């Protein structure tokens, strides 16, 4: 029961913080997350292409 109360308080605090973020900040954060995801995918693709080259040899 104490755990539920703690989670509810944490959720309320998080929701309060989220409401204070301006749309521009959240948009910028979203752009940054997408750019990071693209960088990670490119790295993964590069590794897969290298593995493929090695398998073909």
Would you write up a description of this structure?
The chain is mostly helical and 57 residues long. The protein has a domain at 24-57. The protein has helices at residues 2-20, 23-56. The longest helix is centred in the C-terminal third of the chain and has 34 residues, at 23-56. The mean pLDDT is 85.
Query: What fraction strand?
Result: under 5%
> Please, what is the average pLDDT?
85
End-to-end C-alpha gap: 61 Å
Please tell me how large the radius of gyration is: 21 Å
Name the helix and strand elements from N-terminus to C-terminus, one letter apiece: HH
Characterize the largest beta sheet: strand count, sense, and whether it forms a barrel: none
In total, the number of strands is 0
Report the total helices. Answer: 2
Instruction: Give helix % range.
Output: over 70%
Shape: elongated
The helix-and-strand class reads: mainly alpha
Low-pLDDT stretches are none
How would you concisely characterize the structure shown here?
With 57 residues, this protein is mainly α.
Highlighted features:
93% helix, 2 helices, 57 residues, mainly alpha
Q: Secondary structure elements and their pairing?
A:
Blueprint: H1 2-20, H2 23-56
